[in-house]
Amino acid sequence: MEQATPAAIEVSAARRVYGYGASTTVALGAVDFTVAPGRFVSLIGPSGCGKSTVLRLVAGLETPDAGRVLVHGATPADACAAKLIGFVPQTPALLPWLSVLKNVTLPQRINRKASKRRAPHPDMRELLRKAGLGDAMDKLPAQLSGGMQQRAAIVRAFGLRPEVLLMDEPFSSLDEFTRESLQDQLLGLWNELATTVLFVTHSVSEAVRLSDAVVVMSARPGRVVDVVEIDLPRPRGERLFEKREFHAYEDLIRDRLRGAWRSADIAKAGGAGR
Ligand SMILES: Nc1ncnc2c1ncn2[C@@H]1O[C@H](COP(=O)(O)OP(=O)(O)OP(=O)(O)O)[C@@H](O)[C@H]1O
């Protein structure tokens, strides 16, 4: 992932250790990867390998114990203060007493000053319509299905036009059909707003469908075992699933994941699991 302009995300030898003494857990060994501006990159790896930890480091919610993380050349804390970063968690976390429209416009209203310094923020009514929520704007979150709520959370995250959008398995609780429709909508917004996305998923096919590159991590302590560039044409609609190349990428990533599991087993057998 070489680039001439500064990386949108740079993670260099990032290490993260939790706990003390006998309960020490090395969550991340030394994680290295970069994401160029405007790219869609997914993180995939075995459960507990530290994917969410990487997102928390990039979001500035935690700091690495060694190594460094930069977002557009700034520390994550500074990037957050400048509203460069948006975050979509696994569950939508909408405020139950506000309508959908008020929920998605809340960050813009709170951050009026910060958003004035940057590109004008998008028309949220328009984004809600594009995300298929035109009729749901005045409803309360509890009146929406889980998929609709997650869609609203995604629209909300795009509201401040963050340079970098971090997404932690945002579709994991949704059925296959809703998931695919949300993937389409996410790709539409990403394409239109030229945001950089770092996306955590457990699904190999989701990673291949969405991404420009997939960062494959090993079992804990997490490290990057491979970065697979996904050279498939866009837009990536339903026809993609019929393509041989799509399945070849799935097989390649599954193979890398199997390798990552095997190397972790060997490390554990040698007493280096922690
Ligand atoms: N606050 C914490 N205190 C102690 N250990 C933690 C903490 N947060 C994470 N861990 C440990 O660090 C490791 C990495 O956790 P993390 O949630 O980043 O993994 P993950 O790859 O996102 O997992 P999953 O795919 O299951 O969501 C795990 O072993 C987890 O138990």
UniProtKB/TrEMBL annotation:
The entry's keywords: ATP-binding, Nucleotide-binding, Transport
Keyword Nucleus part of the UniProt annotation: no
Gene3D superfamilies referenced in this protein's UniProt entry, alphabetically: P-loop containing nucleotide triphosphate hydrolases
Every ABC transporter domain range: 9-244
Keyword Metal-binding: no
GO MF terms, alphabetically ordered: ATP binding; ATP hydrolysis activity
Protein source organism: Actinocrinis puniceicyclus
Protein name in the entry: ABC transporter ATP-binding protein
Pfam families xrefs: ABC_tran
